[in-house]
């Protein structure tokens, strides 16, 4: 069987798991998850237990992208912390098995919210879900990175300086047309870079509600998913990532809260969410938040430019969606410039 971003050689996977995963018993079937644009993700089903396989996509990839080995490491390290993660079973670094590196993790049975308005929930439950999202974020940034063995998980120095340089390079490597707003945003972020304030925590890199699994009939988070962009960095990048997402159009496509009456739905304002986070971390507040918000718009623009490039190259996990989201690069760049003007 040929391996692509859409398929999996089940015979090869089954044989490998039979040899390396204690308790594994076939027969094995699979279903590809719609999400996981960057790293194709599959539900593996057996008569007794379900697992999740997450792999690097096949084909030529950007350097340092699709680091499933890092995803495996960080989630394994967080197993005994207050940050809920799926249990990690094994990492396969042998590309010859299915054509690229992959890992196997526990299948967390719960519910996922693609739309932050959560239309099927009550007002009180919406408020509780978002508050637990806030709790988990504060817990993530309170993890003792030395104690969990992650002190070397990211380089020292100014996180935002490093990230702007990295994603500017990634963006240029996947550029398909010139976007003036993106050029202006990259220049402006360098110009308005704040000095390093010394905060150094574990950061998720793509923290949003659709990367979380909640209780099937409750409001508590059971697992945070999609750790590909995680590193040691600045916590405000994760916090701003949440606020960035909420500024997008509402609905399953934009997955934001723009134009939504949050109070009526039981959802906090940006300011209330930030204040609750600061309270949990014992902080008085955050100055110059517009820079952090702008950075998140910039990084997301660079990410979806890479998604578009993979679609054009034939390596996208979900080609149709990749082409669609790729059209939003100029929109994110414009939002980034707007956020900087508020400084």
Structure, explained:
With 343 residues, the protein is an alpha+beta fold. The chain has two domains: 10-106, 2-Layer Sandwich (Phosphorylase Kinase, domain 1); 123-341, Aminoglycoside 3'-phosphotransferase, Chain: A, domain 2 (Alpha-Beta Complex), CATH 3.90.1200.10. 41% of the residues lie in helices and 11% in strands. The strands form three sheets. It has a five-stranded antiparallel β-sheet with strand order 1-2-3-5-4, with helices on one face. Strands 6-9 form a two-stranded antiparallel ribbon.
- Outline the biggest β-sheet: 5 strands, antiparallel
Structural class: alpha+beta
Helix content: 40-55%
Number of helices: 11
Termini separation comes to: 55 Å
Poorly predicted ranges (pLDDT <50, ≥5 residues)? Answer: 1-5
The second-level CATH architecture of the largest domain is: Alpha-Beta Complex
Series of H and E elements: HEEEHEEHHHEEEEHHHHHH
Spatial strand order of the main sheet: 1-2-3-5-4
CATH class placement of the largest domain = Alpha Beta
Strand segment count: 9
Number of domains: 2
CATH topology-level fold name of the largest domain: Aminoglycoside 3'-phosphotransferase, Chain: A, domain 2
Looking at the structure, what is the overall shape?
globular
Cα radius of gyration in angstroms? 20 Å
Strand content: 5-15%
Q: What is the overall pLDDT average?
A: 92
What is the CATH superfamily label of the largest domain? Aminoglycoside phosphotransferase (APH), C-terminal lobe
Protein name: Phosphotransferase family protein
Pfam family, one: APH
Organism: Sedimentitalea arenosa
Domain Aminoglycoside phosphotransferase: 30-253
């Amino acid at each position: 069987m040929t391996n692509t971003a859409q398929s999996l050689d089940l015979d090869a996977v089954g044989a490998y798991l039979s040899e390396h995963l204690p308790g594994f018993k076939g027969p094995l079937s699979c279903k590809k998850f719609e999400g996981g644009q960057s790293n194709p993700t599959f539900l593996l089903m057996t008569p007794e237990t379900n697992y999740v396989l997450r792999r690097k996509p096949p084909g030529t990839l950007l350097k340092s992208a699709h680091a499933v080995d890092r995803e495996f490491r960080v989630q394994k390290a967080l197993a005994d912390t207050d940050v809920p993660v799926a249990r990690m079973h094994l990492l396969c670094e042998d590309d010859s098995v299915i054509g690229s590196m992959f890992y196997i993790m526990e299948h967390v049975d719960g519910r996922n919210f693609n739309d932050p308005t959560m239309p099927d929930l009550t007002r009180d439950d919406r408020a509780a879900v978002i508050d637990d999202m806030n709790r988990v974020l504060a817990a993530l940034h309170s993890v003792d990175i030395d104690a969990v063995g992650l002190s070397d998980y990211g380089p020292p120095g100014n996180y935002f300086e490093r990230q702007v340089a990295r994603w500017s390079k990634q963006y240029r490597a996947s550029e398909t047309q010139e976007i003036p707003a993106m050029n202006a945003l990259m220049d402006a972020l360098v110009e308005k870079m704040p000095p390093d304030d010394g905060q150094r925590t574990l950061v998720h890199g793509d923290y949003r509600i659709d990367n979380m699994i909640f209780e099937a009939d409750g409001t508590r988070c059971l697992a945070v998913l999609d750790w590909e962009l995680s590193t040691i960095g600045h916590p405000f990048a994760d916090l701003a990532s949440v606020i960035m997402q909420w500024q997008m159009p509402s609905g399953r496509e934009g997955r934001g809260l723009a134009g939504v009456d949050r109070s009526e739905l039981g959802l906090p304002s940006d300011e209330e969410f930030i204040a609750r986070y600061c309270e949990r971390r014992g902080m008085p507040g955050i100055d110059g938040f517009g820079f952090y918000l702008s950075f998140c718009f910039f990084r997301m623009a660079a990410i979806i430019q890479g998604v578009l490039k993979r679609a054009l190259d034939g390596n996208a996990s979900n080609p149709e969606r990749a082409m669609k989201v790729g059209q939003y690069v100029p929109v994110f760049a414009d939002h980034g410039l707007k956020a900087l003007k508020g400084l």
